[in-house]
Structure prediction request, 1130 residues.
Amino acid sequence: MAAQTDNATLKTGNGLEALVSGYRPLPGIVDEMMDGNGQVRPHWKPLLSMLAGLGPEEIGRRFASADRYLRDSGVFYRVYEDPAGVERPWPLSHMPLLIEPSEWKALEAGLIQRAGLLEAVLADAYGPGDLIRDGRLPAALVAGNPEFLRPLVGVAPAGGAHLRFIAMDVGRGPDGRWWVLGDRAQAPSGAGYAIENRLALSRAIPEIYRKAHVKRVAPFFQAFQAELFEYNRQEDARVCLLTPGPLNETYFEHAYLARYLGLLLVEGEDLVARDDGVFIRTISGLRRTEVLLRRIDADFADPLELNARSRLGVAGLVQAVRDGKVVIANALGAGLVEARAMLAFLPALASHVLGEELLLPNVATWWLGRADVRDDILAKLDSMVIAPAFASLPDDAHLGRGILGAALDDEQRQHLLQSIADRRVDYVAQEAVTLSSTPVWRDGRLQPRPFSLRLFLAKTGDKWQVMPGGFVRIAENADARAISLQRGDATADAWVLSDAPVSPITLLPSPGRVAVQRAPGMLPSRAADNLFWVGRYVERAEATLRLARALLNRITEAEDSAAPVVIAMTGLLQSWSAAPTDAAPLSVSAAATQVAGSALMGKDFEGSLPRLVKAARTAASVIRERFSPDAWRAVNDLVAMIEAPLSQGPVESAMIERVEAALRIISSFSGLAQENMTQLAGWRFLELGRRIERALQTCRFVRCFANAGAPEGGLDVLLELADSQLTYRQRYVMIASRAPVIDLVMLDPNNPRSVAYQVDRIETHLAALPVRQSAGRLSPVQQVAASIATRFRIGNAGHIDERQIIEIESDLMRLSEAIGATYLTHNEPAQAVWATLP
Amino acid sequence: MIYDIRQTTDCTYASSVAHAHHVLRLTPINRPGQRVQVSSLRIEPEPVHWREGQDFFGNRLTWIAIEEAHEALTVKMSARIAVEKFAVPAVADTPSWEAVQEEVFASTAIGPTAPSHFLFPSRMVSLDPEIRDYARPSFPPGRSLFEGARELMRRIKTDMVYDTAATTVTTTPPMSFALRRGVCQDFAHIMISGLRGLGLSAAYVSGYLRTNRPPGATRLQGADATHAWVLVWCGAAIGWVGFDPTNDLIASDEHIVLAVGRDYTDVAPMDGVIVAHGGQHIDVSVNVIPVG
Prediction:
């Protein structure tokens, strides 16, 4: 024992040395962890010592556990250039960046000062325009900015501020100072990812995190949340996060932040702007919203007054802003201050507007629109970075986010010089800055990599708060100006250190501060619609799988006596468009194999498994934030499995194996939905979809396998399809006979696979949904549901015939339509006009 | 010259439209050289909401909402407008294009008619390098901007074929330029793209042409519908001058301005959002009769 303890102590003592022994800062670059003399900076020592105490193997295990946490939470990002638009696992670089307390204080002050300046510039550009008229900000720089949204000129934003949540990218230059590299005011991303990075890392090394005096970020978000809810004046209104939808690269973050801040995640389609305000289309009608946290680019926010081609926005939103009906964070048009060319003027504007120098410099920038600047810059082009003044220029693709003059070849240089001669207003020159490096854990050791740091600010009251932490972006190469997640680089957490121990505050919202939100009616209709269809598609897939399995089981038996029932089953799959109807003349068993194969793998048939599970996934992807990561993964696993070719080819045994595996995934999905989805309206729509589809399929099975002329063995098939063999055998010790079988699969309210059971569940779910009709009369949905229920109450197994089953099916289809018309679409009539009549 | 102007816009829909929101830019306003004596707008079916306003560039906007099911929408505009003759400046008095460019770049004006708004790419007018290179020969060093613009207008009229079947309202300048075909909208967009590509400010105008000209004069292209042409900023001293590349004409008292913007999308006579299935058909008829 004693020897072991000694050994451990020894390891810790020398551990720090060993951990950094191979670490060499990149030539000519400041390193965050190690000073110019190769000494570890003091504020890194506690962390490094504690890490060293774990030993390299344990460090690797801990960091891997952080990756696992991120994967299990479903954190991902999407890469635009990737044609498949695939979701990538989150690239966490596990070593945090450490910022010491005094340095943080200075950064904080500089950022807050700058935020005030940006707000003042926006207020002027969309207001009196004095800065422009006085020549402090060139008119071309405002007028040429694609984010200068003219319909917003002269509009004072409700709540009094253009900016409420912004980000600034900073980096440390060779002189050791922090420099602002750019401002993000449109709809800054990264804060949600920063929370996830923090959660992942603090769970992986909890004891270190606790002892390292790391400032907590939760209070920052609580304050921002409180601020947003401050503008929510009417009791029944909801604060929303407006997202462009799941195809956006940072959709995960939108969903995550919405959940974290207690906001309703909506797309433009969910909202409607009217004279009296902005409303959410929900399953209980229109509900007001007064505050939008905006993550869609402003230009896309209103097809009526902004970009008419936008399908993401809300027609009339600009007018609602003009009327002061909605607070948008950040205001439409706030993206104006993001322009690179702005950096050339902000230092001078600070002295004029604030009467003080910028505490934190930004990267030196010159706008070439100025005649006096151009000649200077052209003389030293090689040492300058030339970049677009605003966003990117289509004609100068090679320019990207900027290119060093020296890196241009002759042709590019001629091209650039001509472009500058024609339209130099489109360009800026920036000083080429090399950023500092921070350690990453790669191949079992620490290595330096350049990085930039994104810091976040939120407005609370009339003050700005800085999130004590940040989102670190790490470059894999040494060119620290070209950092973008879109290019596959990594991210890290930033730890702002405190002089004193930090009181532990959980990142997750504390119970006292969260308003209880149980209102089931706040489900957006679009989400309900998709959940309903996920339910229907999944259930349809299950029915198809069961039918294919029953068919495959009987081919194996290959008896002539089974032929009629095999033909009936193939016929049913064909009528569901799961297989071709014009198959070559084959033997019964060969034809059946072909049909089963097509139903399981044929992508050309709309009723085939690959098409059904893809349809289910498409509907689910639109609302994926409503599923647990496990349920979402189950849907993806199902798609992946169905799409994979069978290793031994389409032989029966392999196909049966696949059916079994697919059914297992579906049942795990059902279990996850049943157990993990809150049983609110959303879950009810998923259930309604499943129950209606299951009732329909079971009716069809009964008509096919239990009608008067059904083939021999049909009743056994029916019991198998309805998963009711066991119950039947327990109840009736005899071979299948028609009346008891029909009673069991159609009418028995205690059999969870019977039609009656589905109808009962449908009634329960409908009763729990918000009532959409005024008192006294049944809604169309309730009318149809009641009619179906009546059929079952008077039903008698001995007398049920094909005609009655068909009537039940058509009632079920009418019910599906009525649910759609009542809850899922919104042809809101001009109610306001009529409501006021006596 | 005083004109009576009537424009009827008929939209017919393939199926019934449940409700519709529209923005109309169909009411002319007073401008330098143009006085609106009277104007009115009639809309069928009757909108439940009707609001008048103006856009950033000062154009008159009418927002309407129709909440009854309808299969057709008719908007009738009538106006009486007095238009002054434009006094064409002597070329010698006009500044070089380089001087005007410097003036725009250094401009401190940000109001609705400031040249800076019309210097950059806009929704429909990208800065196409081919169109820029086509425009370049009209602007040799030191030439008057006015003269260069007039030559560019003439070249577009000569090189392009007026063809109502070749393009649609969504055709972009590079597309119509590649075809060397199009209508007034395409001609105007191409000229704007060329001028902006060289760092000069150019705006898009929608408006009307006199329907029947005096005996002996050729009938103008585009007189039966709404027309489009280009405004070029010729320096603070001269200001904006209208160039009509479809007819190779400097705009004067036969051109009546309806709306001005960066390109067609800023001045589209009718925008909106409708809830409907199927397509729509729009029919426009215009009459511009001199009354004195």
Notes: Chain B has six helices and 15 strands. The CA atoms of residues 104 and 116 of chain B lie 6 Å apart.
